[in-house]
UniProtKB/TrEMBL annotation:
The chain crosses the membrane at residues 56-75. Keywords: Membrane, Signal, Transmembrane, Transmembrane helix. It comes from Adhaeribacter pallidiroseus. This is Secreted protein. The keyword Membrane applies. It comes from the Bacteria. The keyword Signal applies.
Length: 81
């Protein structure tokens, strides 16, 4: 159990360091980049940008929800034993 807690602390520390790193994110798909650049000239940029941001947040949340669900089910299954 002690080894397991050391692994958890290590993974949490690495995750925290990566999350706090100031790495510029300039990579994006070509389709998103061209859509943003073409709508920048229009006055609809705020609506388009809000929709694009909501779509990104939705796509970003799905893996966390899946991992959380699997983790909860695993915890509940192992707790019964």
């Amino acid at each position: 159990m002690k080894k397991f807690s050391k692994i958890i602390v290590f993974l949490f520390t690495v995750t925290l360091l990566v999350a706090l790193a100031d790495i510029p994110a300039s990579a994006q798909c070509a389709l998103c980049r061209s859509s943003v650049e073409s709508n920048r000239a229009d006055d609809k940029l705020s609506k388009f940008g809000n929709g694009l941001n909501k779509g990104i947040l939705f796509l970003m949340s799905v893996p966390y929800i899946l991992v959380g669900t699997v983790g909860f089910l695993w915890y509940r299954n192992n707790r019964k034993k």
